[in-house]
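ENTRY TYPE: paired fold submission
RECORD: A
CONTENT: sequence, then structure tokens
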Amino acid sequence: MSSVRLFVDPSAISRNASRTVELARRAGCTVAAVTKGVAGHPEVARALLAGGVETLADSRLEHLERLRASGIRAPLLLIRSSAPADAAPTVELADASLQTVVEVVEALAIEARMRGRTHGVILMVDLHTGREGLPPERVPAAARRIASLSGIRFLGLGAYFPMTSSPELRREGLETLCGLARRVAAESDEPLAVVSGGASNVFQLLAVDGHPNPGVNHLRIGTAILLGFSSSLEPVTLPGYERDTFRLEAEVIEVKSGSPPEAILALGTIEVEPRFLFPLQNGVAVREASSDHLLVRLPGPARPGDRLSFRLGYPALSRLASSSYVRWEFLRPV
């Protein structure tokens, strides 16, 4: 039995989802709530849907399969480009996907026609962020080819900005993305259904900070809804958001005497990313971690069996959610 417990408040997640949907709507955007941070956990997904989210998004086909197996019938968006071998499960599990490689989209088209389906595709643009996407100059030709494929509905363009990117880079990138979307739409003489601007950091830029929206109408949001902030590097709670959506609790298994004293917890890098653990008890500080142990500095005496609690950054939550050594406990129903 695991001594590491992850406490979840689905009602708080639902309230964050509701606020996100409303703020995004005011900024001219719809929201796809990202479930990869919770490994596609069905109870969290239901909390997101209860908050008014209509589409769920994930980067792992295994997580989409988990959602479908639990009975969730909401539209699902795959947010990592498919490998060629994954064309069949992509079409089977996802209503739409983010893609970069035209040849992969052609394989998706074949699978969609075989199943009598239409699969939506958002073509990703590389805005010099080091992530997936085509260079802007190659996008118009790729968009024309994708739009011509039977079995595929070309939805539009998308981009991603890392959490380390600056607001200036995001603003410039969004202008480039939206200008490119207008060019592609003009060539096809049909407006694009989707211009997907990115994640929680872009949500803060447009919907919280109020920067003028150059034409984005879709956002893929995980961190803001699940944890109440826009970036784990600077975990400042967004106005009106709830931060106590998830709480990690781990047990002290050894105390080191000294001034100040230190403790070893039954928690390691196998389960969690220690840089993104934020102690709830005053004076506790994370020192270092091995695969099996977490060393923390304490403000005072402790003994084996004591439990320490932590808020989480997104990388920590994602690793915990994927670990079989963590016990989930849901606090209150939605």
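RECORD: B
CONTENT: sequence, then structure tokens
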Amino acid sequence: MVCRFGKKNKFSWAFTLPEFILTMGIIGIVASLTYSGLQRHAEEQKSAVAIKKIYSVLSQVTLYVIKDHDSSINWDLEGYSHDASEKAFNYYEPYFKTVRICSNDPGCWRYPSWYLSGYPYLKETEFYNYMFTLADGMNVIINVYPPEIVMRDFGVKVDRPTVVFLADINGDNLPNTMGKDIFAFVLRGDAIVPSGVDDSYSCNVKSTGLTCTSRVINDNYEFRYY
């Protein structure tokens, strides 16, 4: 910066070219950080709305399913069975507004999908998957898992094979990652609970992210994982 004298010994400050370039660079960095922060906040707000919506839909539909098909303890579901996943879907399907039903064929889920740690979760469909797409664009996998897997992977205590929903809240769009746009919900007894309700140990950037649903909800929809 240089000092220039004007009339009657008055002076003014002026930037040299390198100083001007440096100042503009700093302003650009600050503006970029501000925009990135605002964009991330907007995306998180959108995700929060979507999680609330799918949680409400699954909970409400489950009430109708229980009314029509008795308590889930009488469904006689077998873990890791495509037939069991299809049976559960058939119970739920009349109450969903679906635009695609894929069973375990391609078309209702984007591959690959990822753990929060960055490792692959699904590179292709598993034999026991049953997949569909809701009218709002959310892709959903409905599976039936044995109780030990439900506790180990999804952090929910159950005493029999039960239904687990994986909802990709932004459908075919990226990042297709657990805890970012994929969230799990579990049928415990006759009610839907968020994954991690009993233990959210895997909700961190070095693990799977499968139990992040309850963490996000309990943290007032703050997506902060460490």
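NOTES ON RECORD B: The mean pLDDT is 89. The chain has one domain: 13-218.
STATUS: closed
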